Amino acid sequence: MNENHKRKVDTRVVVETPEGVDFQFVIAGPGTRAWAWLIDNLLKLGILAGVGILLSAVGVFADSSENFVAGIMSIIGFVMNWFYGSLFESWMNGQTPGKKSAGLRVVRTNGTPIDVTSAIGRNFLRTADMLPFCYTVGLISMLMTRRMQRLGDLVFDTMVIDERREWISRTGGLTANIEPLLRSECPRRFSVPERTLAVIERLFESDRIISDARREEIARPLSEALRKRLGYQDPAPDPRNPHTYFRTQGFRHTQFILRVLKTFADDPSGSKGNSKNSGTLMDRTTKKKERSERDSSYEENRQLAGLSSGEPGRES
Amino acid sequence: MNRERFIRDRRNDWREFETLVSRMKNSRQSKWGNRDVATLSRLYRSICYDLSLVQSREWGARLEQYLNDLVAQGHNCLYRSPPQSVRAVWDFFAVGFPRLLRRRYKPFFLALALFLIPLIASVWVGYTRPDLAELIAGRETIEHALKSYENELYVEGDSRYSSERTRMFGHYINNNTSIAFQAFAMGVLVGIGTCYVLISNGIIIGILKGAILAKGNPTADNFFSFIISHGSFELTAIVIAGAGGLVLAQGILMPGQRTRGDSLKFHGVEALQLALGAGGMLFVAAMLEGYFSPLPIASSIKYVVGSMLWLLVVVYLTMSGRERITHES
């Protein structure tokens, strides 16, 4: 039963390092991989066209015939066709330019970097995965395997991981439709310690089987303490539409701690006591997307783990 | 130890690790200093321990994620596949590849049969039944082949020759090696694709040979003196790549004591090595086909050289890499 319980529908794969530590990879789905493939193919075309133009330009001066150019071109075409992926993947540690732009990387299923043989092999088997059209075989194979591997990945024991780590937004779908707290609603303080957030998170962990009513009961003392800390007062019922007020009263503590979670866990600048809040939340999220996503989340974690981004060793 | 103390105690190590990793990521592995490597691996292990501590005490997802990132960076830094050298390529062709082929003689002979039997049969068809041959290969293909070998390919001093050979070399590399690699890759579809590639190529080549034989001498002589040299490497390589495809199929169909997935991985690497060896042979074949076979020299010389090349291929595949076994044992 326990085994079944762990088998979630999830794109995460846990890999155990030789040091005995588990860490997680996010498996890349067909869409992202198709995008990377598209970029790679455009690049291939670009390289072919560029070399072609260059060669013919040189050929005009060097008086070598078009046959020579055609010969070189078909060799380059051959290399592009069969070795483009493997050359880049072994040179750039599992990434082609397309994969890099999409934030993907090929690794072995034990998490170690890909070796040359596997890189060549998985790209050779593309021929079979492409059949009969549009990677149908590969897609079926991806749907049938936990690590979303196409045949080339299966045979050569590799997987494609997504390094953008979007799931890092720790609250996930939990706070999707929740309004964040406004700064004006909390006259006293506008920060919640990390430990409290962790407690809230644990209360909502999906493998915890708690009824909503029981969760509300557990949430009450926490919610009351937080209200005191933030100085938050429930708004009075809207006289024009009291119905919504009374409908949400039943789970007001759950709702409140979810709002706390949304405000201080999703938006890292909130927990540092910055004055700006919900109004710019959207902007900040989009801006964050534009920046290198991995770096930003890494930086966030670094700060919230208790490490300021100042120079090392200052407060020791 | 509480969380704050833990972070206070450990944070200097984490910082040091961060700077070390970011510095080492930007330099080549061979230029890493001894002391750096030693420090890195020590810090990496201690951070792994920190991570498992944080995981077990549930000290917050952010801290865990931060350490997880550190571990991932260190892991990427420390665990790399061994660098490949030119020496390894040479060893592969001199020793590994022929040895592997001898060990995998069963799929090789099966692929040979799949290629040779249709070939012989269709030579006979092309020779005796031109109507049927046209039906199979198409009239234009046959007429084109007959016409292109009617005359000597290139006469001496022909300017066409010097310019065309590079184009043909490129064409042969592209075309033939693609066929070979396809024969290998299609093996993953339980070998059906491999069989198709082998049989269809056998039939086409056979029909053309038969038709040219039926046509009689200047054409036949031109043709066979042309193909004998590079055919040694080319045809053998196609069969070997097909054998690679069959090895893949064997991995799926006959897993033996392994699970099917494990068996596929086990056989996959050897199958790929067969295909890569075949690729190397096809490179030699394309060189011969582009630069030697069309030389305007007497066909008797080509026959002699071609036979020697066939002998060379056989000796290479059966003998190369043997002496090391006796040396080692």
Molecular structure report:
The complex is a heterodimer of chains A (316) and B (329). Helix content of chain A is 56%, strand content 7%. With 316 residues, chain A is an alpha+beta fold. Chain A folds into two domains: 26-162, no CATH class; 172-304, no CATH class. In chain A, strand 1 and strand 2 form a beta hairpin. The two termini of chain A are 48 Å apart. Residues 1-6, 166-170, 267-295 and 308-316 of chain A have low confidence and may be disordered. Chain B has 329 residues and is mostly helical. Chain B has two domains: 3-78, no CATH class; 87-320, no CATH class. The termini of chain B are far apart. The chains are: A alpha+beta (316), B mainly alpha (329). Chains A and B meet through strand 2, helix 3, helix 5, helix 6 and helix 8 of A and helix 1, helix 2, helix 3, helix 8 and helix 11 of B.
How much helicity do the residues of chain B have?
Answer: over 70%
Terminal-residue CA separation of chain A:
48 Å
* Strand/helix succession of chain A: HEEHHHEHHHHEHHHHHHH
- The dominant shape of chain B is elongated
Question: What is the overall silhouette of chain A?
Answer: elongated
Largest interface, with counts of residues having CB < 8 Å to the other chain, equals: A-B, 65 and 69 residues
Question: Which terms summarize this structure?
Answer:
heterodimer; A: alpha+beta; elongated; disordered C terminus; B: 329 residues; mainly alpha; 83% helix
